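Open question from group meeting: does this chain pack into something compact, or does most of it stay loose? Before anyone orders reagents, we agreed to write out a predicted structure and look at it together. Recording both the input and the output here so the notebook holds the full record.
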Amino acid sequence: MQTSITAKIKHFFIGDPLNPFNPNILRHVSLVAFLAWIGLGADGLSSSCYGPEETFIALGSHTHLALFIAIATAVTVFVISLGYNQVIELFPSGGGGYKVATQLLGPYVGLVSGAALLIDYVLTIAVSTASGMDAIFSMIPVHFMHYKLFAEALMIIILLALNLRGMKESIIVLLPIFVGFVIFHFALIVYGISAHSKGLLTVVPDTITETKKLALTLGWIPLLALMLHAYSLGGGTYTGLEAVSNNVNRLSEPRVTTGKWTMFYMACSLAFTAAGIILLYLLWQAKPQGELTLNAIVFSTILGNSTFGNTVLIITLLLEAGLLFVGANTGFLAGPSVLSNMALDNWMPNRFRHLSTRLVVQNGIILFGIAALLVLLWSHGSVALLVILYSINVFITFSLSLFGLCVYWASHRSKASPRWKLRLMFSVFAALVTTSILCITLFSKFEEGGWVTVLITLAVIGICLLIKRHYNDVNKTLALLDSQLMQPIVEKRLQCVIPDPQQPTAGILVGKNPGIGMHTLLCVLRMFPRHFKNFIFISVGIVDVESFTGASALEKMREEVNHTMQYFVDYCQQYGIAARSYVAFGTDTVEKLSGLAEKVGEDFPNCIFFSSKLIFEHDNWITRFLHNETPVTLQRQLHLQGKELVIIPMKI
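Structure tokens returned:
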């Protein structure tokens, strides 16, 4: 009864399972450019709600410099976007900044980039949720303010549950908010610029005149330092531009073309919105007022105090809050993808490469949700603090990715296109821009919270190094075991020995490492000499992030599993032992093995199941977390079915 209720609750939140071998399923879960722009571009576009404000406030009384900042912001967006277009082209299987750094600069540089990305996406969820609630609570009475942190935590939980159903499903739910934001802000920016009495024609010469006066007073170097400082504090504006390159494998075919179109949509919308909002601050002389955001202040000034104006203002601010929540959703979409890529390289626990029945990286989504909640509670939802932490790590990834492109074009001159010089020069320029922003932000904000980012990033890198060392040691031992135990098939019998269902039967569970399966088989033969007349080999081919990249990858995985199972059958039959194999494929190992065990039990009533479990000299909760503990979980499932599973220890 309890299991039934749990299953119903799980089905309510997650939905029906999807078949990864359905030829149409990739089309179902993949994104066209428009949906990718919404799902992956919302993070960048939502940063226009707080990035331009940070920049403008940093100028202090020298607001006329905002014109230069607006131009620089728009140019920077396109520079970074064009740089990541090259990443999409060179790495069409996804992975983005992590894969660029890993393959072009080395695995340890890739680790730094990956760790920075993981923290960046956790902060994406936290800062966007906090900023969205700031926008909502700025429109309601002050005495409700102590509920704000609770509302932020609740929103993260809602987004987590929504993403467990799938990427496309979460995007479609949030689509109206995104479209509404784009329409309303486009209209307000165009109207705000055109309706201003002076307009840009007057502002441009005034800005040039005021800048020359300020340069004579301060000097050109202090003036440039002021502008660079303000420009770097708007670094949060560019966050999210890397999300497309991290998730190219989630896009519709042709993936590279879809990715480039998505980047184009993102660059145009973000450059126009961010630069346009900075211009509105300048034209309408926006000044901070209490808890109100600068966007709320400038839009209120533009729209006036009429009923219509107030209504449009409320809708606009609600759409801003909503888009920030859509931007937070990007962390759930892109973060687990980076985590799974790092798990494939053994920097992270293997469980983060596994897919759920809805074909999403469920463990990664849950981890990012919990981490974002902890960061939110630690910071008490302070957007100013979170933006500092956020900007530093995103520019670490930007800089490493673009530097990787410089190395690529410099080292592939003979193989590259005739335009390699132009691409190299552009990559160098882009890398200098992002590295400059990173250095200025880190230097100016180190004592205000930047040191926390550095400390957390170093901690994540240290944890990854320990995980990698553990997996390397285990894999070396298992590889040695494979080479020692896996014997060649000397003779294939012309007539196969048919298993007798009434005879004692041993069900041998075979996993990814055939050496472990052979260890189980040999132990059973040694412990029960001549008792079992049939040997049934059972295995499940797991559809994970690595295999779920296309039909060819799935077919390769299927062939490898079938080949391994045929080896065990042939091995037994060459000694006159009756053998057969049962194979299933899916995302849940325990569920599929349990189903196969039930089927084997029906065909062979006198079957006892056997599996091996890795035993570590220093066993603790960490080693249990790093390994899936499938035999122990399955043993409980089979015991509930009235079947026996004997676990044979295998010391590592």
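Observations to bring back to the group:
The chain has two domains: 31-469, 505-651.
DSSP finds 23 helices and five strands in the chain.
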